[in-house]
Amino acid sequence: MADRMDMTDREEPLEDRIRRAVDAGDYTRANSLWIELGSRMGEELAAGRIPSARLRHTLELIDWCRTAALIGRARCEQQLTQLGVSCRYMAEAAAPRQRLLARG
Question: What are the φ/ψ torsions at residue 100 (nearest 5 degrees)?
């Protein structure tokens, strides 16, 4: 099954694999795919054959990746804030309460 996934992954355009990796939060994989795409585009640029439509598409992908990463970061910050608030309330609830008994 993994071999089938690898083959499908290799057949899929780099831009789609980048989008999928970023969407999954796999930024290490996305980074390596960006390096590969940059290398390919560098070769194409040296040969003088990068269509302007491809450059526009790549710029749109950059913008999408940036937005997706910012959204992921905001969600993570929100979860950390909620965790901090929850921990404070849990600590208060777990603290033993002492009772003062009135003697008369």
Answer: -100, 125
Q: What is the rounded distance in angstroms from the CA atom of residue 83 to the CA atom of residue 65?
A: 27
CA-CA-CA-CA dihedral for 92, 73, 14, 1, to nearest 10 = 0
pTM listed for this prediction: 0.68
* pLDDT at 75 (0 to 100): 92
Q: 51 and 94 in contact (C-beta within 8 Å)?
A: no
What pLDDT does residue 28 have? 96
Q: Which residue bears the tokens 């009135």?
A: 102
Q: Domain limits of the chain?
A: 2-92
Mean pLDDT of the chain: 84
Q: Name the helix (H) or strand (E) containing 5.
A: helix 2-11
